[in-house]
Design brief:
By secondary structure, the chain is of the alpha+beta class. It is built from 5 helices and 9 strands. It folds into 2 domains: 62 residues, 434 Repressor (Amino-terminal Domain); 107 residues, Jelly Rolls. Strands 1-2-3-9-4-7 form a 6-stranded antiparallel sheet, with no helix packed on it. A 3-stranded antiparallel sheet has the order 6-5-8, with no helix packed on it.
Length: 193
């Protein structure tokens, strides 16, 4: 997925809606400076941030990822074949000015108005970001080993393990071992209910 396209979609949609950065900041709970940096840097923010921005615009995250929804499609259902999700690789180091490092595949990205955001995530080997967002999150380890730190407590997860938590509590994670972990993660945003 083209990160520059994501940043351009955010900027274009904000301008199309004649929305100021101040208003977008108010709607997302993010700072004006951070939102401006996203638009100027041409780099995609973390998925949880994209979700907040999409909610503020009242669009699906898929729109920000460059997905154009087909109005003739049955919007009540989304079928995604294996390896056909929208892939975003965001793997930058802190030295490059990033606060995160991960890759993910958005699933059911063509389903408009969904309450849950399912994705496959491949956490980096470093804990580079602390996530905290509204809603709940579920993670299931498909492959590898993953360390989740939730409210300061460590949970070592292996293939087949799952965890469900209140996402408003600070959390982070990283892959353990020689190969990146692969997780099925589902985020529920209360605002959409």
């Amino acid at each position: 997925m083209d990160e520059e396209l994501i940043a351009a979609n955010i900027n274009a949609l904000r301008k199309q809606r004649k929305m100021t950065l101040e208003k977008l900041a108010e709607l997302t709970g993010l700072t004006k400076g951070y939102l401006s940096k996203i638009e100027r840097s041409k780099k995609a923010p973390p998925y949880s941030t994209l979700n907040k921005i999409a909610f503020a615009f009242e669009v699906d995250v898929a729109f920000l990822l460059g997905e154009r929804l087909d109005p003739s499609k049955d919007s009540r259902i989304s079928f995604t074949r294996k390896n056909q999700g929208k892939v975003v690789n965001i793997m930058r180091s802190l030295s490059e000015g990033s606060l995160y490092g991960y890759g993910y595949e958005a699933l059911a990205s063509d389903k408009p108005g969904k309450n849950m955001e399912p994705y496959i995530i491949e956490p980096s080997f470093n804990e580079e970001a602390i996530f905290q967002h509204e809603g709940e999150e579920f993670m299931y380890v498909l492959e590898g080993k993953h360390k989740l730190i939730y409210d300061g407590k460590e949970y070592i997860m292996e293939e087949g393990d799952c965890i469900y938590f209140d996402a408003s509590i600070p959390h982070t994670g990283r892959s353990l071992g020689k190969k990146k972990a692969r997780l099925l993660a589902v985020m529920l945003n209360y605002k959409r209910l």
